[in-house]
Amino acid sequence: MKLGEIHATLQHAASFPARLRDYTRFQIQRMLEQKDFSVATKKELQTALKLLKEQKRLMEKN
Questions:
Q1: What is the pLDDT of residues 18-59, one digit of tens each?
Q2: CA distance readout (Å), 24 to 2, 6, 53
Q3: Each residue of 7-20: b (16+ CB within 10 Å) or e?
Q4: pLDDT of residue 51
Q5: pLDDT at residue 17, rounded to an integer
Q6: Contact in structure between 44 and 17 (CB atoms under 8 Å)
Q7: Which residues have a Cβ under 8 Å from the Cβ of 22 and sit 6 or more positions away?
Q8: Is the Cβ–Cβ distance between 9 and 61 less than 8 Å?
Q9: I need a surface site. Which of 15, 27, 28, 39 has the fewest CB within 10 A?
Q10: What is the structure's pLDDT at 33?
Q11: What's 1-60 look like in SS3?
């Protein structure tokens, strides 16, 4: 699943890393592991990974 495919409610968060919409969880995780910050900052990559991993739990709170 790509980051841009998560629930729209989560995409409206102020800290949502929009430029990572077309990347999958695997790709984002690989960027973090390789310390590749050419597309996004470390914080943006971590936020994107958290959203992808925990989207179900985050939506339950709404």
A1: 788 889 999 999 999 999 999 999 999 998 898 888 877 666
A2: 4, 11, 11
A3: eeebeeeeebbeeb
A4: 84
A5: 81
A6: yes
A7: 2, 3, 4
A8: no
A9: 15
A10: 97
A11: CEHHHCCHHHHCCCCCCHHHCCCEHHHHHHHHHCCCCCCCCHHHHHHHHHHHHHHHHHHH
User: For 21, phi and psi rounded to 5 degrees?
Assistant: -55, -35
- For the residues 9-22, what does the mean pLDDT come to? 75
d(CA 51, CA 24): 11
User: How many residues belong to the chain?
Assistant: 62
Would the pTM count as exceeding 0.70? Answer: yes
